Amino acid sequence: MDSASRIAGACEDNVTRAIESRTSQIPSSAYLGAALGSMAAAAILRIAGKKHASLFVGQWAAPFLLMGVYNKMVKQHGSDAETRQTAETV
Q1: pTM above the 0.70 mark?
Q2: What is the per-residue pLDDT across 5-44, written as a single tens digit (0 to 9) for each?
Q3: How many whole angstroms separate alpha carbon 51 and alpha carbon 82?
Q4: Which one of 42, 61, 62, 78 counts the least CB within 10 Å of its CB?
Q5: Rounded CA gap, 46 and 43, in Å?
Q6: Kind of pairing, strands 4-7 and 10-13?
């Protein structure tokens, strides 16, 4: 397990493990809050008459929600799930 760890039948490299370790520290509600915040900011921009800016900011909601789903999956099935399982059995 020098450069890769075995998780659910797939090999994960150091980059993936580093990303998972960072994203698993962020609460899932933060991504939901960011998505809702971008929608609120888009509505405010739209009311202020800044149509293009509101469309730009409004499109941030989907990526934030996708990152939240990825975050949840990392917590349940990623390399930190394997670490938690070994910690629970000890």
Answers
A1: no
A2: 554 555 667 888 888 888 778 888 999 999 999 999 999 9
A3: 46
A4: 62
A5: 5
A6: antiparallel
